[in-house]
Amino acid sequence: MNTAKRTYETTFIVNASLEDATIEHIITSTIEFIKNNGGVITTLDKWGRRRLAYPIQKKHNGFYVYVMYDAPATLLPQLERYFHLEENILRHLTLKMSKHALEFRKAFLQNRHERMMDIQSSASEQAASEAIQEASAIPVPQEREAPETAF
Predict the structure, then answer these.
(1) How far is Cα 125 from Cα 131, in angstroms, rounded to an integer?
(2) Looking at residue 51, what DSSP letter applies?
(3) Which end of the chain has a smaller Cβ tally under 10 Å, C or N?
C-alpha cells in the first residue's frame, strides 16, 4: 500500500446565508477532518462571501474557502463522502497538484510576498511623509503687536 503523501488543493463553497460562527465552525471541522485523516494543511485561504455564477440549491451567494494540503491518496474518498454528508457545503472541488503547478504556486506566492513587502514599505514611507507634511502644515502662532489705543 502506497502511503506517500501528495499535494492537493480543495476549494469548497459554504452556504453564505449562515451566521459567521456557523461558517467558521464548518471550516474548522473540515480542516480537522483533513488533519485527523493524515493530511497536513499548508495553505488556508478564506475568500469570503461571493456571488455565485449561477444558483446552487436556490442559493445565490456562497462563502469560498481554499485549502492546500499534503495527504495520502486514501483521504480523498473519505473527504468526498464528508463533503456529500455536510449539507451546508454547496460545492467542492479537489485537484492533485502537479509538480509544475507546485513550482508555479511557490513562485507566485514568493512574488506576492515581495509585492506586499514593497507595498508595506512604501506605505510606511508615505505615512511618514504625510505625518511630516501634516506637522509642517500646522500654523505656528505668531507674536502679535499690541493694538494701539488712543487716549
Answers:
(1) 10
(2) E
(3) C
Q: What is the pLDDT of residue 104?
A: 82
* Range(s) of the domain holding residue 51: 5-97
- CA–CA separation, 84 and 28 (whole Å): 17
The number of C-alpha atoms within 13 Å of 90 and in the hemisphere containing its C-beta is 24
DSSP characters over the chain: ----EEEEEEEEEEETTS-HHHHHHHHHHHHHHHHHTT-EEEEEEEEEEEEEEEEETTEEEEEEEEEEEEEETTHHHHHHHHHHH-TTEEEEEEEEPPHHHHHHHHHHHHHHHHHHHHHHHHHHHHHHHHHHHHHHHSPPPPP-PPPP---
Domains: count for the chain: 1
pLDDT given at position 105: 77
β strands within 35-107, DSSP E: 40-56, 59-72, 89-96
Task: Split the chain (151 residues) into runs of 10 and give each run's mean pLDDT.
Answer: 81 94 95 94 91 90 94 93 94 90 78 78 69 56 56 50
Q: Please give the grid coordinates belonging to residue 104.
A: 508555479
